[in-house]
Specification:
122 residues; mainly beta; seven-stranded mixed sheet; 11 strands; 48% strand
């Protein structure tokens, strides 16, 4: 199971850190990713990280502002979001896939957390 947390309301330019805690199974070698979905829009890729933390991938819209990281001791992944913009407002989901690919397509991810709301006010 994946448990996402850390969302909230923040002003534009502010920061939030999301956490995704994994439990109940071994996610060793899995790729962990963050997606987001705004009202009326499709779920979109935000960032992904390999289990080792050595490989990362970001959507162009968040490059330079968001950082994904991993703590394998705590079995938790993080998404540090800085310089937030109103267009970052969405429900953020963490997901995992077993094939080691830092892919963009949410349909290729095997496990999903419940989502956490991020709202950025202007």
């Amino acid at each position: 199971q994946l448990q996402a947390s850390g969302g909230g309301l923040v002003q534009a330019g502010g920061s939030l850190r999301l956490s995704c805690a994994a439990s109940g199974r071994t996610f060793g070698s899995y790729v962990m990713a963050w997606f987001r979905q705004a009202p009326g829009k499709e779920r979109e890729f935000v960032a992904a990280i390999s289990w080792s933390g050595l490989r990362t991938r970001y959507a162009d819209s968040v490059k330079g502002r968001f950082t994904v990281s991993t703590d394998n001791v705590k079995n938790t992944r993080y998404l540090q979001m800085n310089s937030l913009k109103p267009e970052d407002t969405a429900v953020y989901y963490c997901a995992a896939r077993a094939d080691g690919t830092l892919g963009l397509d949410p349909r290729r991810y095997d496990y999903w957390g419940q989502g956490t709301q991020v709202t950025v006010s202007s």
